[in-house]
Amino acid sequence: MLKRRPSNEKKHLRSCYTKSLLITKLPFAASVLIGLGKMICGIFFSSQWFIITAIYYLVLCSARKHILKKDESISQLDTDTAKFEQQFKLFRHSGIFICLIAIIYLLVCLYMLFFNKTILYPDYVIYGLTTITFYKLGAAFYKVTDSLREKDSAELAIRIISFIDAVVSIVMVQCALLTLEGSRFASTSSSIFGMGCSSLFFLVGLAMILRKKKYPEKVLLEQKKRVADK
Fold first, then answer.
1. pLDDT in tens, the chain (230 residues)
2. What residue intervals traverse the membrane (predicted)?
């Protein structure tokens, strides 16, 4: 008995999903390395600054890892209704992670503001940070319109966390550039900008937690068909 080959549409969707995961996992790997590096420096130099920023990166990585792992298991479900229910549940849980990330990043910015904490990076490090930041922005916006149109809550949550990571990187690059130029207000301006961003992140996370469930058309059609079959 011959096995049925998947349709071109299914192959295309699977290919897009694989590319999407790959693009998302690269910034995840970078965040893991940065978080571990900062934690090691914080322990070695007894630096509260490195430890606080390391906690932020590690929580961010945990959120990403949780969403990616759950999303992979959700993609194996058979029905659109089951997928949507699990994706929506994951979306709300992701909102809790984002609120936690926002609070930790607010603490990082407050530390910068009150202790005037900045680090003078070499030119090549700043160039590298800028390149990574642009990549993170591209990864955050990749296929975001498809996620909104198809109401894919899990992938949208991944995009939101990627966007938060990219915005934090922008603040970090801004602070590094101002410090390189010898600005006295590098720490103050970057920390105030960062606190504004963290407040926005918290509101986004809260909106995700309180989001009302709205079934997409394909799920409604599947439910109607199931009722008709009974």
1. 444 444 444 444 444 444 455 555 666 677 777 778 878 877 887 777 788 888 888 888 888 888 888 888 887 888 888 888 888 888 999 999 999 999 999 998 998 888 887 777 788 878 888 888 888 788 777 756 555 555 667 778 888 888 898 899 899 888 888 888 888 888 899 999 999 999 999 999 999 999 888 877 777 777 777 777 76
2. 21-37, 43-60, 95-114, 126-144, 156-180, 192-210
Instruction: Compute CA 156 distance to the chain's CA centroid, rounded to the nearest angstrom.
Output: 9
Within a domain: 137:
yes
Task: Return the structure tokens found at 15.
Answer: 């290919």
Token digits of residue 219? 């799920």
Cα→Cα distances 129→10, 28, 52, 140, 211, Å: 37, 15, 19, 16, 34
Question: How many domains is the chain built from?
Answer: 1
What is the Cβ-side half-sphere exposure of residue 175, based on CA atoms within 13 angstroms? 22
Quote the CA–CA distance of 133 and 98 in Å, as a whole number.
Answer: 19
Single pTM value for the model: 0.78
Q: Identify the domain containing residue 189 by its residue range.
A: 18-213
Is the residue at 67 inside a domain?
yes
Alpha-helical runs (H) found in the chain: 8-45, 48-74, 80-115, 123-141, 144-150, 153-180, 186-209, 217-229
